[in-house]
Amino acid sequence: MKAHLKDCFVGIIIALVSIPISMGYASVAGLPVVYGLYGSLLPIFVFALLSTSFRFVFGVDAAPAALTGGMIAAMEIVPESAEALQIIPCITILVSLWLFLFFLLRADRILKFISQPVMGGFITGIGMTIICMQIPKLFGGNAGTGELLSLLLHIKNEAARDFNLISLLLGLFTIALILLSKHFFPKLPSQPILMFVGAALTFFFHIDQKFGIKTLPSVQAGLPSFFIPNISVLLNFDKRIWLQSASIAVVIFSETLLATSNIALKYEESISPRKEILAYALANFASALSGSCPVNGSVSRTGIANQFGVSSKLMSISASLAMLLILLCGTGFIAYLPVPVLTGIVISALIGTFEFSLAHRLRALDKSEFFIFYAAFASVLLLGTIYGVIVGVLLAAITFIIRQSKPAVDFLGIVPGLKGYYSLTRKGTAAVPIKNVIIYRFSGPLFYANIKQFCDDVENSVKADTKIFVVDSSGISSVDATAAERLLRLYKKFSAKGIQFYLAGHVGAVNEQLRAFGAMELIEKRVVRARIAFALDAAGLEHPYPADETVVPLEKNYSVEQAEFEWAFGRDAEKVMMDFANKIAKELSVSGTFDMQKIQEQEIQHFKDYWSEVQEDEFLDILEMTLESLDQQKTLVNHTEIEQKISLRHAQLESLLLEKNEEVVQKIIHHRLVRDEKLQQKYPTLYARIQIEHERYFEELSMAHPELAKKLAQIISSEEEKI
Length: 723
What we know:
With 723 residues, the protein is mainly alpha-helical. 66% of the residues lie in helices and 4% in strands.
């Protein structure tokens, strides 16, 4: 019940915020401002009934209004004239028909080719464009249209012609208050509060007369006259009007569907893109019946709605009903609303839609997707909505092809004593090649753009003693005709050299493609195998496989637990553990209380199944060094007590592991001795204290468990000799 009441309240806020936005864009489209309110009445109600996205707000908005205004200007029709009132609803009808055609053609399928960076750049570009359109209204000018360069020129001209500093300060103050309240008081409905404050300033203090602050024009009360537009009038105009209306439909379809999908992804909700297009078509038809311009999804008003946690379609329904009441009996209030305050509300909402945080993450993770984000962003700003989508999709497609042409590859070996096949190149691994065998892993579809790299890798890796070559093809999902032909040729070339060649682990569909593309011989000669082990068995090798003793592994001391942790975090494994140690150390510096059970719970929560006694033992060493650094900075209390508890936990871990697996303890002791050398050089005081704790623990262990103590002493002595 509370959620429904809240959604109704949010709907009222959206209706109030829609007043300045819809009136302004109706004027841009070439209609009297009241038609903006008409376009926020029936269309939003129809959209609410049909849409599968309850979070999105529909109504008169920037892009379709600007395109419509451009169309009637090109037709030399005077804005707000009788001819404009006749032709604009006809344009809206055409847009509705185009959108219905998109629905029939299932145009929503284009979404699968649009990546998140494209979506993020697109939405951010739209938000920035609309802000540039609105900026002149902050200082007393008129809203602009077009792309970035024309908008900047318009801002300059408007500022030179009519600049009101008080108006600008009022608008900026509104933006600042909303952003601050959003940060410190997120549930406070600051937008309607500021709207009423602005109206009060006009009513009581006459800021419009004293300081020249613009207010919205007065609007006559009453509902629109619903009618069916006479489309036959379009025959009197250039046939290009049909294609121009199609461009408006494309903008509505792409902008709204992308933004809706982005919102759904953000809140982990599902929508039906095809039903959304039908909702757009019928909402525009409803707009035409009320004589208004084409309508669109509003990024700015959606941002406001989601600030308040909207949870149902009641938001849009109540917004429509609230607009009904405003038109019937609340239009007198409109004339008191200051334009800079309302513009500040719109701009602050648009700032909330920016996806620059996504770009920041992409910069660290994937430079190509970071570039795609800003390419889509710049394309929308400089070229417009349609070209922004086209550029983004093309860049995403090009990036996909480039990535598939250079997929991840690796060479695999074995870790003696462990099952499976491990990377020979990944940091921390103790894997070594199988003697006279090369296992090459290729992760991606094999086709004309990457088959050369595949063949070059395979041929260049062959050594003089290579007798067996196995391609781990578990990552190969498909092959094309070029790849099939080259695989067959590679097999024959290796066979001529006496090297047994196998493809192992791929899905069955790849075999069907090999047959279809003329490489049936690979199947007949049993070159393809279901698993790597089957291929090695067919080549005459039995498990355990002989290791190539001439190769020194990257890491001599290695365990199953380390293998799992290194596999998960790779080159960042040490950094991940360091970051976690820093987090725990900061918490300890604040609380001064060391609760080992609580820390263990955090370890499991943070690393889950990748965490084991081996990782915990290594983590405690890193934590000790981190705490020593804090102690030197005089920011840590009870350091000695914390050290003793860590040493006790070290001892418990050694006992646990020694009872389970002596080999694992050997490797732990080896790692610790290596770290002790570094510790002695960097933190000699800490090293001395740790040694005292180790000696104390060893005495206690000798008394309680003499056999374990003796075994541990032998291991330490053996590992010290190795180092």
